[in-house]
Design goal:
The chain has 284 residues and is α/β, with parallel strands linked by helices. It is built from 7 helices and 13 strands. It is 29% helix and 30% strand. The strands form 3 sheets. Strands 5-6-7-3-8-9 form a 6-stranded mixed β-sheet, sandwiched between helices. Strands 11-12-10-13 form a 4-stranded antiparallel β-sheet, covered by helices on one side. It binds adenosine-5'-triphosphate (ATP) and magnesium ion.
Length: 284
């Protein structure tokens, strides 16, 4: 299975979800501690995926491996060529430079013109209630405020993949709301969003798929009270499988929340998929 090249084309109309990142057998140990255990997972263009789970379960490690910042002990993370990543670390480094200087340099590195970057910083600073702090040295900023610098950096230009590691820890409600809006705007532009987060309302507002890491393995996360539904579909011929489907003998299986199933099923049927079965948790 080769990673698709030329991912910048818009294939939304054809309903094709292109692979852009693939984890193959990714394993990571620190000394004797096995953090990630043989993880296989594909991420698609325009997907929004969240990783939840207890402290130390491996969320940040996984995001860093996806970003290419941490090398797995075994296996590999493959990225489609030419992807622009924006990665916001959990802990943002305090430095003596001001947020404005830092963001300006980062914008220019990303290919923005200086004046364009300057205007963008001013406008995002206002959106995130940050204006008066832009000229304070970053080492004097609080943890939550420092994290905001990272968030503003994430939105300076449009990336292909946005990796957010606990982007709202310590942030006020208004800024959380802006983050949700801006992230969903990017998703509307087919940016892939991968997020680690402890706040359930943020996860629900951003992510379509939620995973947890348990004993190094990636598992579907199903919060208590969510009704899941499984749909069995048959490919009437020549249809491209949706990224959320898994092959199941001669059929395809799609598991999603009941409300999500209701939302996407009509579209799939109108594209020619045949419904061969549908059951919710109680029936299974
Ligand atoms: N550089 C490192 N050296 C040694 N151990 C590490 C290193 N980075 C992470 N670990 C260990 O790997 C495990 C997973 O850490 P990770 O930071 O990925 O967890 P997390 O799920 O992001 O946790 P949190 O919710 O607290 O952010 C932890 O036990 C951690 O102590
Ligand atoms: Mg973490």
């Amino acid at each position: 299975m080769a990673l698709t090249e030329g991912i910048r084309g818009n294939d939304k109309e054809r309903g094709v979800f292109m692979e852009i990142i693939r984890l193959e057998n990714v394993t990571k140990s620190y000394g004797d501690k096995l953090v990630l255990n043989h993880i296989d997972k594909v991420f698609h263009r325009g997907e929004a995926v969240a990783f939840v789970g207890h402290n130390g379960c491996g969320k940040s490690t996984l995001l860093r491996i996806i970003a290419g910042l941490t090398v797995p002990s075994d296996g590999r993370a493959v990225q489609a060529p030419g992807l622009l990543f924006h990665y916001i670390p959990e802990k943002f480094p305090p430095t003596p430079v001001t947020a404005r200087q830092y963001l300006l340099n980062m914008g220019i590195l990303d290919g923005m013109r200086r004046d364009e970057a300057g205007r963008r910083i001013a406008s995002l600073g206002e959106d995130f209630f940050f204006g008066e702090l832009l000229d304070v040295p970053m080492r004097s900023l609080s943890k939550g405020t420092l994290q905001k610098v990272g968030v503003i950096q994430a939105f300076m230009t449009r990336p292909d993949v946005l990796l957010l590691d606990e982007p709202v820890s310590g942030q006020d409600k208004e800024s959380q709301k802006v983050l949700i809006e801006k992230t969903n705007e990017l998703r509307g532009e087919d940016v892939t969003i991968l997020l680690s987060c402890h706040e359930e309302h943020i996860v629900n507002a951003i992510a379509q798929d939620v995973y947890t890491i348990r004993e190094g393995r990636l598992e579907d996360y199903e919060p208590a009270g969510t009704k899941m539904c499984t749909v069995i579909l048959e490919n009437a011929g020549g249809l491209e499988a949706d990224g959320r489907m898994t092959k199941y003998g001669r059929y395809y299986r799609l598991k999603a929340e009941e409300t999500e199933c209701d939302r996407i099923l009509p579209g799939l049927l109108s594209r020619g998929w045949r419904l061969r079965g549908m059951y919710n948790e109680e029936d299974s």
